[in-house]
Amino acid sequence: MSTQSISIHDGAPGARIPSLWSQVRAEAAEAIRDEPLLGALIHGGLLHHPDLQSALAYRLALKLASNEMSEQILRELTDRAYADRPEIVRAAEADLCAVLERDPATHRLIQPLLFYKGFQALQAYRLAHLLWQTGRRDMAYFVQMRCSEAFGVDIHPGARVGMGVMIDHAHSIVIGETAVVGDNVSMLHSVTLGGTGKDDGDRHPKIGEGVLIGAGAKVLGNITIGAHSRIAAGSVVLEDVPPCKTVAGVPARIVGDAGCEEPAAAMDHRIQVTGA
Predict the structure, then answer these.
(1) Which stretches within 134-271 are classed as H helix?
(2) How far apart are alpha carbons 225 and 274 in whole angstroms?
(3) CA spacing 20 to 30 A to 1: which of 32, 43, 46, 250?
(4) CA gap 63, 95 in Å, rounded
């Protein structure tokens, strides 16, 4: 698996979506008509802003601010990050579309932007990752800490996460420092991409493109999960998984093929055993 294709700061593909912000604004206006009591929230969070990056910077600053770091400082930090690295905004667009396409409970783009901690935590990670890459590691650790406190999602800023990623429900997600997550991956709550001991160095999983990871799954060690594979809920994966396979159990074993070409898009967690 090429790490070039899955690091948003290494030129990962992803064209901007010109109509996306227009759609967000139309949905926001409709939401205010339906629920006027949310008018101030929606105006402040969406309609007040000229584009997605401004709205994201506002939202992240609002959520990550604390007595130790003001909203203004975090807003300036995020605005600068988006101006310097527009690929982070492209990644956010892809993440936003992924949630709308894959989550049957999501009917509008404004839902992840305003209400979903999985989407918002992923954008906080992207800010922390940029800080990590540019040598501002203490600030990156601060953003990681606040992301964990605010969203219950702990992604090390050194990890590399691709575009079009959906973290559904997003409770108790842990992704370690040397983990790599490919483009178009979907994972549910309580997933861990962790190490297996105290050794440093490259010690975390490498998740291929289009992988579906079920709720509560633990993927441990410097192993490779092949593209378009599925990890069943509650599994503990300790060995490499070939592409296009389904694994399940503790420890996980191959129980069949993935069942479709794009497991992460299909979001089908049912296991049909076809043999290893």
Answers:
(1) 137-151, 263-266
(2) 19
(3) 250
(4) 19
Tokens of 159: 């990890």
218-225: Cβ within 8 A, 24+ apart? 218/191, 218/192, 218/194, 219/191, 219/192, 219/193, 219/194, 220/192, 220/194, 220/195, 220/196, 221/195, 221/196, 222/178, 222/195, 224/1
Exposed e or buried b per residue across 143-162, where buried means at least 16 C-beta atoms within 10 angstroms of its C-beta: bbebbbebbbbbbbbbbbbb
Distance CA 84, CA 184 (A): 24
Could you identify the residue written with the tokens 């906080």?
A: 124
Name beta bridge partners: 166. Answer: 186
If 0-12 CB within 10 Å is exposed, 13-18 middle and 19+ buried, where does residue 237 land?
buried
In tens, the pLDDT along 11-28 reads: 333 444 558 999 999 999
Residues 209-238: tens digit of each pLDDT? 999 999 999 999 999 999 999 999 999 999
Query: Do 166 and 212 contact (CB within 8 A), yes or no?
Result: no
For residue 20, give every residue at least 6 positions away whose Cβ sits within 8 Å of its Cβ, in sequence order, or none: 52, 93, 96, 97, 109
Nearest to 208 by CA among 186, 185, 192: 185
Nearest residue to 8 (alpha-carbon basis) of 105, 82, 99:
82
Residue linked to tokens 């600030």: 139
Whole-angstrom Cα distance, residue 94 to residue 78? 18
List, edge to edge, every strand of the sheet that includes 173-175: 153-155, 173-175, 192-194, 218-220, 236-237
Query: CA-CA-CA-CA torsion for 250, 254, 260, 265, nearest 10 degrees?
Result: 30
Peptide bond into 251 cis (omega under 30): yes
